[in-house]
Write a structure and sequence with these properties.
By secondary structure, the protein is an alpha/beta fold. The protein contains 10 helices and 14 strands. The longest helix has 19 residues.
Length: 337
């Protein structure tokens, strides 16, 4: 629901809840995740690459007939991780506003294979009940939600499948779903702000995008409660319908939580292991000089984050977040007491 969710600052420098401002819903597609699946030749990729300053990540080569498209072939999840690192660079961010993933079906297969290789298993289920799929979800979210936090619009493209299901009364009906396993589909659907099915209209040969289906025969939805159920397939129409839905819901909030500005990226603070260790030594030196009674208090804080009997010298660079929490708590609890 559009409203006053909390909006984070551009740069996280610790956590300060007094600095949070009410979230404003952007009419720009930046920061949103769109998922459109459907039959071939319905214009999914054509729609997606109409977004301004788009990078197409081609997990399958379907852009040969799209002149002028900027595309990067992706042949493994390792490639995707490298692309993610590139997209964090300021000079790259200046060139692109949106990332198109074509197709999400293959991207999810690559991610699952990556997790299996990483864990030394044949299938995600081999890791134990739910653990493999949790690892997959965490990895997938880390990459693609990470892109939205950097300010990119993310656009997933996928295939569809038809299934026949039996109703409670014994009758059968055909339902349309993404061509993904149920577990993968739940991950992708949970990420998407806009989730639609691209297909040929029954009335004519025009491609249409379905975003709402009352009888659940088509899997679709989204976070904009007033968006149209179905409309002709085009980028301009999609943006127009999103604007209309936002404006309609904004009336419920006096129009104060809507903006035409691009969503500002949320950049994770990069923690420096050596700098934090030096800061820790400086803080401890000052505290111990002030009073030896601070020693047990410092030890208690260290053990709280690293474990009983552990010392700060035992902390590795991979535990930099723990060191940061130790330094922050020493500052708050001891230096300012």
């Amino acid at each position: 629901m559009v409203g006053c969710q909390c909006r984070k600052k551009e740069k996280r420098m610790g956590i300060n809840l007094l600095n949070i401002e009410p979230h404003k819903v952007s009419k720009d597609l930046s920061g949103y995740i769109t998922y459109i699946y459907g039959a071939p030749k319905t214009g999914k990729t054509t729609l997606a690459v109409q977004m301004p300053k788009t990078l197409l990540l081609a997990f399958e080569r379907g852009y040969n007939a799209l002149p002028g498209v900027i595309a990067q072939d992706v042949t493994s999840w390792g490639d995707m991780k490298q692309v993610m690192r590139e997209l964090k660079k300021p000079e790259v961010k200046a060139n692109f506003d949106a990332v198109v993933v074509d197709t999400i079906d293959i991207a999810s297969d690559f991610c699952q294979k990556y997790i299996c290789q990483q864990k030394g298993i044949e299938a995600l289920g081999d890791l134990g009940y739910g653990k493999g799929w949790t690892a997959f979800k965490d990895e997938f979210n880390d990459v693609f939600r990470g892109l939205t936090q950097l300010g990119y619009a993310v656009f997933f493209i996928g295939h569809h499948k038809e299934q026949t299901i039996t109703n409670d009364d014994g009758t059968e009906k055909i339902v349309i779903r993404p061509a993904l396993s149920n577990s993968t589909r739940q991950v992708i659907e949970g990420m998407a702000d806009i989730y639609g099915y691209a297909h040929q209209s029954n009335k004519n040969e025009m491609s249409v995008l379905t975003l709402r289906c009352p009888d659940d025969s088509i899997s679709c939805g989204g976070r904009f409660k007033y968006i149209a159920s179905e409309f002709p397939m085009s980028y301009d129409n999609l943006v127009e319908e999103i604007h209309r839905a936002i404006d309609k819901e904004a009336l419920e909030h006096g129009n104060q939580y809507v903006t035409d500005e691009r969503e500002k990226p949320v950049e994770k603070e990069e923690l420096n292991y050596d700098a934090l260790m030096n800061k820790f030594q400086e803080l401890v030196g000052n505290l111990m000089q002030a009073s030896e009674a601070n020693g047990p208090k410092i030890t208690k804080i260290i053990e709280k984050y690293l474990g009983k009997g552990r010392k700060i010298a035992d902390a590795t660079p991979e535990q930099v977040e723990m060191i940061n929490l130790i330094v922050t708590e020493i500052e708050d609890e001891l230096m300012h007491s």
